[in-house]
Every structure is written in C-alpha cells, then in structure tokens.
Amino acid sequence: MTYSEENYLKAIYHLSLFQKKGVNTNAIAKMIDSKASSVTDMIKKLAEKNLVKYQKYQGVSLTAEGLLEAKMIVRKHRLWEVFLVEKLDFSWDEVHDVAEELEHINSEKLINKLDAFLGFPTEDPHGDPIPNAKGEIKKMDKKLLSELKLNQKSICVGVKDSSSNFLKYLDKQQIALGSTIEIMEKESFDASLIVLVNGNEMNISHKIASNLYVKTV
C-alpha cells in the first residue's frame, strides 16, 4: 500500500472506534485534511482492494482484511513511540510526528523484533493499547476523570487528547501515567474539580478532566 492508503485506513480505524455505524466521508476528510472528492476517490481504491466497504448513507467501514491492516499500522506507530520514549529519551509530546514517519516502514520482521526488544509492551507512552502481532488488543477498564464520583481514588492510565499542547500542560502540572488522583470537590457551576494529584491539591477544569483516562483503585 501507499503511505496515503495507510493513512486513510488508520483514520477510518480511529474514527470507527467512536461510531457504531459506518464512518462519514466528511469526518475522514477532516481528519486527513483533504477534500471530500479526494476521499471518495481513495475509498473507491481501497474498496477495490477489499480493504473497506462503502454504502451510501451508511458510510465507510473496514473489511476484516482492512481492519487487520489498520491495526498493524497502529501497532507500528505505537511501538515506535515506546521506543522513542524509553530508549531515545524523547518526551511523550514529541513522539507522534516522528512515529507518523516510522509507521510506514514495511518490515514485519523489524516490527516483531522491535516488539520483543521492548519487552512486548501493551500500551504506548500515552496509555493507548498496542495491538499484538495478531491484531489482538488487551482491553483496559478505564474511565474519564470527569466521570468519577466525589472521593473516588484513581490512577491516570491514558489521555484522550494526545496533542503536544495538552501533554506539555500535563507535564507542567506534574500529571503523568501512573499519577494517583483523588477527587475532593466538584463545582456544580462549571464541573471543575479540586483534586489531589500524588497528594498535592490542585484545580482541574472540566475540559482537562474530560481528556484524562483513569482506572479506579
């Protein structure tokens, strides 16, 4: 496949995680930053390769073959992110763009050896699951911090927003994967929170709480 085809498959995969029905072509165009006409042309090419299905008014969905291909692209991307952070000392807000380039290296042997070299990680530096060589994904019981009740204790296990700006903000607040978070107060006016992060009290907006994945303890 071409780099462009791989990017489309990955985009459809990510969008399908939040939609029960087929993915809207306009949503694909927005994620890929492309014109709707270009998306339509690419969908036809992918359909000819039996990687996607398209039905008018029902959107685009991945075939079994397309789903596996998409998972393998995601697998490569997230393994490279782990490598960059753990072995080359990149920060978690720096790795996405580099991994976007590395994910197109087409060597199954290399990726499997990379996986073994890293100790078969199940999550990337942002807490997102890494598909194994068969496309299997370990499920994690997680919620958004904004969904927790008063006095609930939790551990940060991921981020919904993996943008560089958000990750840098978390670094400033000393919030990272593994941080303990306990909700002390909830503001009824704007749903902001007063929390204890690793024992330190701080205010967190509803927007921040809606982008932090946690696991209750």
TrEMBL record:
Its main location: cytoplasm. Keywords: Activator, Cytoplasm, DNA-binding, Manganese, Repressor, Transcription, Transcription regulation. It is found in: Cytoplasm. It comes from the Bacteria. Coiled coil: none annotated. Homodimer. This is Transcriptional regulator MntR.
